[in-house]
Amino acid sequence: MTEMFILIPGRTSDQGCGISEGKFQEKYQKQITSLQVAPGDMERLALAEGDWVRLTTEFGQQVEVAVTAAKKDELPEGLLFIAYGDISSRLMGGDTHGSGMPTSKGIDVELEVLRSETA
Amino acid sequence: MASVGSVEPGARSELTVVEDAVCTFCGCVCDDIDLTVENNHITQAQRACVLGKAWFLNHAIDDRPSCLIDGQPAGLEDGYQRAAEILTGGKYPIVYGLSDSPCEAQRVAVSIVDWIDGTIDTTTSVCHGPSGMAFQGVGEVTCTLGEVANRGDFIMFWGSNPAESHPRHFTKYSLMPKGMFVPNGRKDRTCVIVDVRKTKSAKAADIFLQIKPRKDFEALWTLRALAKGIELDARQVESETGIELSVWQDLMDRMKAAKFGVIFFGMGLTMTRGKHANSEALLALTRDLNAYTRFTAKPNRGHGNVTGADNVVAWRTGYPFGVNHNRGYPRFNPGEYTTSDTLARGEADCGMMIACDPMANFSQPAREHLASIPYIALDSKETPTTRAATVAFTVATYGINAPGTVYRMDDVPIPLRPAFKSPHPSDFEVLSNIETRVKAIRGVRS
Ligand code: SF4
Fold first, then answer.
1. Residue B393's pLDDT is what?
2. Based on the domain organization, do B328 and B217 belong to the same domain?
3. Do B259 and B317 sit in the same domain of this protein?
4. Do B384 and A81 touch (CB under 8 A)?
5. B46 within a domain of the structure (yes/no)
6. Contact state of A22 with B126 under an 8 Å Cβ cutoff
7. Which of B108, B128, B203, B342 shows the smallest number of beta carbons within 10 Å?
8. Residue B198 lies in a domain
9. B95: which strand partners?
10. Are residues B337 and B436 both part of a single domain?
11. Does residue B235 have a pLDDT over 70?
12. Are residues A50 and A64 in contact, defined by beta-carbon separation less than 8 angstroms?
């Protein structure tokens, strides 16, 4: 099953604290590898906490990531959130459209439910 | 008067208190932190927020070599020499980062780039670079955070989530302070937050507007039209922005009625569709509103001295970021000389990454190219970028171990008050030593 979503990478305070604790430490790694999904989307896609999904961009960048339900009404359905880091960067294209800034928020992604990690 | 204590490495343990220390984790650059230091370790950071505490309490002396060459411990002198050889050996050297270094070190980095006819860029290009382009297009109606605290009665955040990125923004500068013209603090202010999701900051707002993703440009131009009294099609406005026209009209009436309005904007604007056109629309809206009342706009800057990087690169080269010296004089062109591009297109053939982590934060093509070229990395912590570097320097942490000057997000320079000394050299020392060797290789007399 695949469905289109808009991905919004951003900051979280745990990610910020994790940078100071160390990028190879648990807090930072956990933050940047958890994809937040709106509770309504979790239910509709029958996703449980910790299930794996594959995200693919229009330029073919692909990642696999575990999901977690976003808090209450923080995220509207159709939007995904992840803390900035390795995974969000892998989904950015190399092109900056003459601005120096790759499109790093509001990225169209195709979400495929995997349940468990394939890699 | 603060008692600034410094402990030499290996000296007898003692406890010192550093009053009014400066937190450089985010662009708020809070300069009222009291630090308790025991045995080269900060044990308390009074008044710091959760991010500031994590910053101070996790920067003890890193037990790593000050220099690694090809992953092996090496002497600093060897590291400086190898770094200079790398930078002078390429055809397209790039120097990038600088937003977590003091201005004094940034200045030396620009000099090195000048000697090697290289390209200098800062992390601004991947945060508020688009806003930098917009400033050149429409200008900036600006103010200091002190003016916000004392005058601001209408405070708006657009695409910015200070509750998680700048936790003391509300309490120290923008919402809570009781100021000269807002004596009742929060009660005298209206807070509006515009975002595509209901962030943790939304709780602080009197009015929260959740617009459609990638429709910031349309929303800002709706407000520009309303500011000028232009009639709009209500159905089109709602379908484009996700918000009813009457809500936008009410917002505009409140903006015009404000005595001193401020719009803080974040990367929700600059990183999404529209980029510099979004920032330009917001800055133009701010300018337009000055026909009715006093309105200002400020980018909410992330890293502690990213504002300093813009200032230093601008006063050394005439441009704020993405500056190429290949023809012997500075040229500015975002998209051409910015690091995401010079790496992703495979143009750079050597580089120096200063207090930044492109191996974690850049696109995959950019990372792959960086991994394939010789480069130098300076950081106080181990990162994916230092791990893959040809020469990696562990440096003293600015503000905690190393002195210098940083610019707060409102361009106010603030001197650092370091808490204890580090056995590792500072960015300034490493860069100065590399510059000396670069000059020697280039045949320039010091
Ligand atoms: S708001 Fe920013 S500068 Fe102030 S203490 Fe928190 S992290 Fe440090």
1. 98
2. no
3. no
4. no
5. no
6. no
7. B203
8. yes
9. B120, B352
10. yes
11. yes
12. no
Question: How many other C-beta atoms are found inside a 10 Å radius of the C-beta of residue B331?
Answer: 16
At residue B446, the pLDDT reads 67
- Structural domains of chain A ordered from first start: 2-115 (2.40.40.20)
Is residue B260 predicted with pLDDT exceeding 60? yes
Helix, strand, coil percent values for chain B (each to nearest 5) = 40, 20, 40
A105–B268 CB contact, under 8 Å:
yes
Report the pLDDT averaged over residues B252-265. Answer: 98
Which residue has the CA at smallest separation from atom 2 of ligand 1? B26
B182 & B227 share domain: yes
Tens of pLDDT, residue by residue over B321-347, are 999 999 999 999 999 999 999 999 999
Identify the top-confidence range among A11-25, A63-77, B65-79: B65-79
CATH number of residue B393's parent domain: 3.40.50.740
Based on the number of CB atoms within 10 Å of its own CB, is A60 exposed (0-12), middle (13-18) or buried (19 or more)?
exposed
Whether residue B3 is predicted with pLDDT greater than 80 in this model: the reply is: no
Given a cut of 70, is residue B13 above it in pLDDT? no
Q: Structural domain of residue B323, as residue ranges?
A: 67-127+304-399+423-442
Same domain as B202, residue B334:
no
- The CATH number of whichever domain residue B175 belongs to comes to 3.40.228.10
Residue type, position B47, single letter: R
Q: Strand B375-379 vs strand B350-354: parallel, antiparallel, or unpaired?
A: parallel
Probe target for ligand 1 pocket from B22, B30, B264, with the most ligand atoms within 8 Å of CB: B30
For residues B281 and B363, state if they share a domain: no
Closest listed residue to residue B123, CA positions, set A101, A32, A88, A115: A101
